[in-house]
Design a protein that fits this description.
By secondary structure, this protein is of the alpha/beta class. It has 3 domains: 169 residues, Rossmann fold (3-Layer(aba) Sandwich); 167 residues, Beta Barrel (OB fold (Dihydrolipoamide Acetyltransferase, E2P)), CATH 2.40.50.360; 75 residues, Helicase, Ruva Protein, domain 3 (Orthogonal Bundle). Helix content is 38%, strand content 25%. Helix 11 packs across helix 12. The protein binds adenosine-5'-triphosphate and magnesium ion (MG).
Length: 452
Amino acid sequence: MARIVEAPKRGFERIGAHSHIKGLGLRDGKALRIADGLVGQVEAREAAGIVVSMVREGKMAGRGILLVGPPGTGKTAIAIAIAKELGKDTPFVALSGSEVYSAEMKKSEVLMQAMRKAIGVRIREYRKVYEGMVVDLDVQMTRHPYNPYQQVPKSAKITLKTRNEQKTLRTDETVAIELINKGVGIGDVIWIDAETGRVAKLGRCIEAPREEVYDIEAEEKVPLPQGPILKDKEFVHTVTLHDLDVMQARSSGGLFSLLFGGGETREISNEVRQRVDGLVREWVDEGRAEIIPGVLFIDDVHMLDIEAFSFLSRAMESELAPIIILATNRGLTRIRGTDIESPHGIPLDLLDRLLIIRTRPYTEDEIKEIIKIRAREEKVALSDEALEYLTKLGAMHSLRYAVQLLTPAFEVARKEGRDRVMVTDVERVKGLFVDVTQSVRYLKEYEEQFLK
Ligand SMILES: Nc1ncnc2c1ncn2[C@@H]1O[C@H](COP(=O)(O)OP(=O)(O)OP(=O)(O)O)[C@@H](O)[C@H]1O
Ligand SMILES: [Mg+2]
């Protein structure tokens, strides 16, 4: 049986901005105005709901989705919601079109790895885990080793409780990062793999302390676990085809890879992948494993070039393909690597295979609701006036700008000895941080001065 190894964690910032999204918020195929962390964007959510049904019925094979809409209108949010809707261990891999241009890897290799990260393999096995409801959690942050302006988790102290026992555990950085990635908080029932530090959130405990219960919550309710905290548990685990590729490449790499480890960024040979595919098929036949196609989300897809597009078209046809969701905020533009103009910079033969979903700009009311949800998620208390003001900023500049001001405004409020953000705090950070249009305008002004 495979040993479960955590894939290296990258891009946890990017997912962080969408941590409030739990699903598409549909009932009988109709979008509720506010549900599962999503607000408005009714047509796009209902279209996405149909996609989810098609995936479940196996009718998406050979096709993909394209999300089209202006910046900040929830394209990434909806892609994540689709993955959540498909089930909680559905892999979700986000890639920006520009990320395929890497110095270490061929474009096709970057895309291939992303595809294989987006295909889950659910394996049944016995593991030693710490399981219980979180009654206390303290994550220590430290400076990023290479980036002094970024805080990264260093360690964590967590207290877990079952019906029979309570235990405080000290954990290393791997677990601390996992806890943050999974959005673990007090009142959640989780388990931590004793060997690998992998964390899973089972849901919110029915017996969670009262103040930790929200008015709107989409998470599953689970009972307080029984028995000891550390236990042998038979359960189902999900790894990705890429995890298995890396393990296989290591174990077949001989002394060199044992001594030098690594292999994360190294290209994986076709031979290794075929061996993994064979192994997985064997497990599936024996009833020990199951394949779960996840979501591969490629943002700014107009950044891909003609070669990358043809790789994608081919990949969509293959037997082991994830659900491919593309997004762009560009209209008619040149396909990279050619002189041809095409809608969204995507070749026509690929466009033919895509179902296109449109996202539209938000009303002020919707912006306000989204800011409220994000404020709750980031644990920022807002006065009514501050909320109104942020809403105005969101409508005037961009939703993302308004959302980004939440945490800095809270910092300012705290320095002033308050635990609630007032209009003055927002005004202050608005003067300190500019939005993209302002920053571009600012540099333009300077450019003109220099050019004179
Ligand atoms: N309908 C919505 N309900 C709740 N939150 C939303 C909604 N739409 C967007 N958001 C949140 O607003 C922020 C910006 O949205 P998002 O990043 O999804 O936009 P985008 O269309 O992908 O933008 P870009 O074109 O710049 O990539 C995110 O934090 C996202 O989670
Ligand atoms: Mg986006």
